[in-house]
Amino acid sequence: MSFYGTNHPQAADPLDDINIAKSTREVVLTSAATIKPRPVFWLWKGRIALGTIALLAGREGLGKSTLGYWLAARITQGEMFGHFYGTPKSVLVCATEDSWEHTIVPRLMAAGADLARVYRVEVVNALDVHVGLSLPRDNHALERHAREVDAALLLLDPLMSRLGDLDTHRDAEVRQALEPLAAIADRTRMAILGLIHHNKSGSADPLQLVMGSKAFTAVARSVHTVVPDPDDESDKRRLFGTPKNNLGRTDLPTFTFTIESHAIETDEGTAWTGSLTWGEELTHSIGDAMRRAADVGEDRSAATEAAQWLEDYLAMHGGQVPSADIKKAAKAAQITDSALRGARTKLRILTPSSGFPRITYWELPPVVSQSSDPSRGDHTTNTTDTTRGSESQWCQSGQSCDDSRSLDTTDAGGCLDCGESLPASTLPLGGTHHAHCGAGAA
Questions:
Q1: pLDDT tens across 168-197, in order?
Q2: Cα 276 off chain centre by
Q3: All domains of the chain, ordered by start, with CATH?
């Protein structure tokens, strides 16, 4: 029997149902008095509402998928703070970019998921060939299976790949796929989370950064964003925030997280995957963080260009130049004082001084020789610093290995205004600038 009843013959293809629906359209009026109001029920309290479509957006490689599987794991264990807290539910996952054996299942295991409650969504055609889920073509079957396994979440990773031949930059075609999907979410009381990339516009507005048509953010009831933390120089910490939340608060806090390596034991040996670790809660919004990131990015870019200029300038002048001459030349090259200070820090410029009256010089540091054995498959590097300390082993990931590097701690670097060397005790903890070195302008 057709989905639309006995008045129409059995459809051989789901698209035939859509064509039948178009041919039998009629306008229906419903009195608002007959529609009962309902409260909002949350899958993730205050962030993702049941019965809606949500987006998780961000640049590639920032941990969106890992966060998605962390959420899936909490749902399967009944640990997600929301309507189903204490009640484990099933999760449907439609993911085509990552391998289930090498990536997805290990990530779920690292997050502590009940794998028996996670279902891979595939489509098999009449020739037993596996093809991708296509929306809205496969809507009816998708809804039926969601009901059968009592799913609370459908994870689409990525959402763009599920729209088939539809043009993802045309509002009308995106709505053709998403609005029926939203109706499925509403009927099944299931949340649907679509992972989507940021575009390359460079905008600091998290909603403008979402790739494709504006219909994606318009149809979604909540939009969540993952961005790098602009205050983390290690580039490991991420920020998670909710710039759009139609059914809840718009002033939700921003959370920090990192992705840590996690070992999973398999029948064939150890598999390594990523595991999400939450950090501190921040009071500012994700939009504020993105605007600050744009400013920091400009500062870092200026410092990088200044570092290239400074390195070339010192090399052309014998490697050592009076700091006053450098500042004069930098000004002529239209390099700001802040960019020059950043360049000095980036290059680890030495600041010897001599003569009377004393003149401070900026000097390129000695070359550090490094060697590694790629055949070992590890990341151990032998480093010899010719100016201070002895040969040590240092891990390229930033972790010290067998030895500790011997450092001369009597010099904490130079004043970034004049370059004068300063004793370690005069610098504030974590400071990089000292306005009262006593040397005067060099």
A1: 999 999 999 999 999 999 999 999 999 999
A2: 12
A3: 40-284 (3.40.50.300), 318-426 (no CATH)
